[in-house]
């Protein structure tokens, strides 16, 4: 019985040494280095944000929900995009109104020119 216990003990020590050696040589088995504590996997493109970008958005989960800093950053970025789109739309609406006014003015001028030609 004593010999079997020694064999089991030696086997456990050898297994532990092999495990420690393998862990030191091969690392933790991760393909990427772990994120820094303040880093975030949350990403939005540098270009304009589309609906699919928002749908693909994921936040790092913590004990009580999501990281507030990540959510705040994403909301700030989306708010900026919405403001930019609203400003662009307002500018385009004004340009369309100006162009329509110009076209209407040109048509009235053409009409008055035609009347003057008929009178001659």
Automatic annotation (TrEMBL):
Its main location: cytoplasm. Residues 75-109 form a coiled coil. Pfam families: DivIVA. It comes from the Bacteria. Keywords: Cell cycle, Cell division, Coiled coil, Cytoplasm. It is found in: Cytoplasm. This is Cell wall synthesis protein Wag31. It comes from Pseudonocardia parietis. The lineage of its organism: Bacteria, Bacillati, Actinomycetota, Actinomycetes, Pseudonocardiales.
